[in-house]
Design goal:
The protein has 13 helices and 16 strands. By secondary structure, it is an alpha+beta fold. It has one domain: Beta-lactamase. The strands form five sheets. An eight-stranded antiparallel β-sheet has the order 3-2-1-16-15-14-13-12, sandwiched between helices. A two-stranded antiparallel sheet has the order 4-9. Strands 5-8 form a two-stranded antiparallel ribbon. The longest helix is centred in the last third of the chain and has 19 residues. The radius of gyration is 21 Å and the shape is globular. About 4% of the residues have low confidence.
């Protein structure tokens, strides 16, 4: 009931315009009166109800950052307040960078999207239930490879500055192939590659490994040289120790009180190990919104971006479709493109609407674990679009319900 009540408050704010000085009721006057103070009050209220310790957000309009701000405490033990420059672990938003790296190699003629991945691996990758069906790079990008389950190690975290030997090789081979010491048959689905979508983070670990094998660079070094540095993303890295640790949001879980977690890394970092802030990520989103270019710097061709943002294999399994590294949603009859992220102590979203190219980014340092938290996460999303457009339709019941549906996967997928 609390969540319904706050939604009613949103509706009341836009349904009953304020009186102007001459007593006339005017919707435009009402919207202008919904100023930063009221917006901040609504955001902080939703944060409190969902036990979000910190939130950083940005709005993108007309190819630039139109607004950015932080709320709450990103480090409660040191009483540090969040800003737009606070760095967060962004979880599965990382996949959009891995996919971008693959598409850059495609543009250089170093791979083809429909190549058998075995052309680039030192071991044979096949679904043992369909050994004659090749798995392509496109299938891995679109979660269509028939890989079914993520490795338990993906959900195990270790101190963020600890180097783990044996990954990606020989670990990937030992996990993915029937004779491997970590192999379990259930990592493969019964259906053949290309037949159905199954969201498998391990597929992006393979893609990161392919980038390394083709370029003879570490995945981090490649992304720094060809994505982060060209875009001016100075506070972005897959490696914790390359960043200012004092400016990184502490991840929290809430069990009646806030419990801090160590800054951690995941084994499968090309799928979910990136850290950045909303200002840096905005540059990347602008590039993807505008055909691969930001501030005169091109990281992809318009044709590659169009392919990445296009549904590759229609699926009815999830509340979203998938392109090449990007989630695609139909909300209120309109196309939204981006990616969510969720891990221990983090929940994130980067998305833009195709029609008007309005984009939003927001990070919080607490995971989404319950349905009421999905609702709060979705409320923040709709509030940001409302702030961006000043259109009361952004908070309509229909759009709110559709946004909640679009974000339900945060309860199940990382």
């Amino acid at each position: 009931m609390r969540w319904f009540a706050i939604f009613v408050v949103f509706l009341l704010l836009i349904a009953f315009p304020f009186k102007s000085r001459d007593g006339a009721m005017n919707i435009k006057t009402a919207m202008e009166a919904v100023n930063e103070e009221i917006f901040d009050m609504l955001i902080t209220r939703v944060m409190k109800m969902a036990h979000m310790s910190a939130l950083s957000a940005a709005i993108i309009k007309d190819g630039k950052v139109a607004w950015a701000k932080g709320y709450g405490l990103y480090d409660r033990e040191r009483n540090k307040e969040a800003t737009e420059n606070t760095i967060y672990l962004v979880a599965s938003i990382s996949k959009t960078f891995t996919a971008t790296a693959i598409m850059q190699l495609y543009e250089k003629g170093l791979l083809d999207l429909d190549d058998d991945v075995n052309k680039y691996l030192p071991f044979s990758l096949r679904n043992p239930k369909h050994p004659d069906k090749p798995i392509t790079i496109r299938m891995l990008l679109a979660h269509q490879s028939s890989l079914a389950e993520d490795p338990p190690a993906f959900y195990c975290h270790f101190p963020g500055d600890l180097k783990i030997g044996g990954y990606p090789e020989p670990w990937l081979e030992e996990y993915l192939t029937p004779n491997g010491i970590h192999y379990k048959p259930q990592i493969w689905a019964d259906y053949e590659p290309g037949k159905e979508m199954s969201y498998a983070n391990i597929g992006y670990s393979i893609l990161g490994y392919i980038v390394e094998r083709i370029t003879n660079m570490t995945f981090e070094d490649y992304c720094q040289k060809y994505i982060f540095q060209p875009l001016g993303m100075k506070n972005t890295s897959f490696e914790l120790m390359k960043l200012n640790i004092s400016n990184i949001a502490v991840p929290y879980i809430y069990r009646g009180e806030y419990e801090p977690l160590l800054h951690y890394q995941i084994l499968d970092y090309p799928a979910g190990g990136l850290r950045t802030n909303v200002i840096d990520l905005a540059k990347f989103l602008i590039a993807h919104t505008y055909g691969g270019e930001y501030n005169g710097i091109r990281i992809l061709s318009p044709e590659s971006v169009e392919e990445m943002h296009k549904v590759q294999y229609p699926s009815h399994k999830y509340f979203f479709q998938y392109g090449l590294g990007f989630q695609i949603w139909n909300i209120g009859g309109e196309k939204y493109i981006g990616h969510t992220g969720g891990l221990y102590g983090v929940a994130t979203k980067m998305v833009y609407r195709e029609r008007d190219k309005v984009g939003i980014i927001f990070f919080t340092n607490k995971g989404v674990e319950k349905m009421n938290e999905v609702i709060a996460f979705s409320m923040i999303e709709r509030l940001l679009f409302w702030k961006a457009t000043h259109d009361k339709k952004e908070l309509s019941k229909e759009l709110m319900e559709a946004t909640v549906d679009a974000n339900k996967h945060l309860l199940f997928l990382q």
